[in-house]
Amino acid sequence: LHIVQASLRRIPSASPLLSSFHRQAGTSVTSSISYMEQKLKSKPRVLCLHGYGTNSEFLKVMQLGFSPLQDLCDFHFMDGVFESEIAPGVEKYIKYVNQQECYKWLRKTEDGKQYYGFEESLKAIDAELKRIGDVDALLGFSQGAVIASLAADRLKLRGVICVCGVDTKRHQDKLSIPSFHIIGKKDPIRDRSIKLYDQFTGVKEMMEHPEGHKFPNAKEKQIGTAFSKFCSSNLMKKI
């Protein structure tokens, strides 16, 4: 018994070893959390504006296939200002969304030649930014790209992302902020997407996917690579 007791006395206490382990483990966990927080903070916050005759839930579903967007940005979504009938061609998304009410950002005059409602939509974006806090960029799809472009330029954000956008039809609108444009080769409004691109005078890039009025899919690696570079150069926060 005396021999055993003497042997036990010679064994170092486990407490300091355990304390050291806990300190190291705690430091490791804290470092991991800190790293994740920094990564999240470094992601640009982007407010997304849907197209005519849909809503924010439609847009969330429509852009899911283009993974670079999901990987590189922290997205927030809002609905348009004016109630609208559902847009043609988007019925296939209905089963994926809970919100059925559809909206638009602009109205047309009776002759269909002029848009109005710009100021109402810009004011709605200002109100949303007061609610959610500052963002680094805006993303707009189709009609949403018009309002996203005007709002982002007015607010002097880091940039704007236009997917199958349409021009403002107001040729005095010259937009100076960095812009990234994705257009569809078979999109019926492709020409108007190019006109919107032409209204930007600053750093800009245009990429084309082979389909129509929609987001590209994950197979479009060149678009993903180009967007990643644009994001790093113009939208990403420095940490």
How is this structure best described in words?
By secondary structure, this protein is α/β, with parallel strands linked by helices. Helices cover 43% and strands 18% of the residues. It has eight helices and ten strands. The chain has helices at 2-10, 14-42, 56-62, 67-72, 118-132, 143-155, 190-198, 221-235, and strands spanning 45-49, 74-78, 82-84, 102-104, 107-108, 115-116, 137-141, 159-163, 179-184, 204-209. A six-stranded parallel beta sheet has the order 2-1-7-8-9-10, sandwiched between helices. A two-stranded antiparallel ribbon has the order 3-4. Strand 7, helix 6 (143-155) and strand 8 (159-163) form a beta-alpha-beta unit. The longest helix is centred in the first third of the chain and has 29 residues, at 14-42. The chain starts with a helix and ends with a helix.
Give the topology, please.
Layout: H1 2-10, H2 14-42, E1 45-49, H3 56-62, H4 67-72, E2 74-78, E3 82-84, E4 102-104, E5 107-108, E6 115-116, H5 118-132, E7 137-141, H6 143-155, E8 159-163, E9 179-184, H7 190-198, E10 204-209, H8 221-235
Parallel strand pairs: 1-2, 1-7, 7-8, 8-9, 9-10
Antiparallel strand pairs: 3-4, 5-6
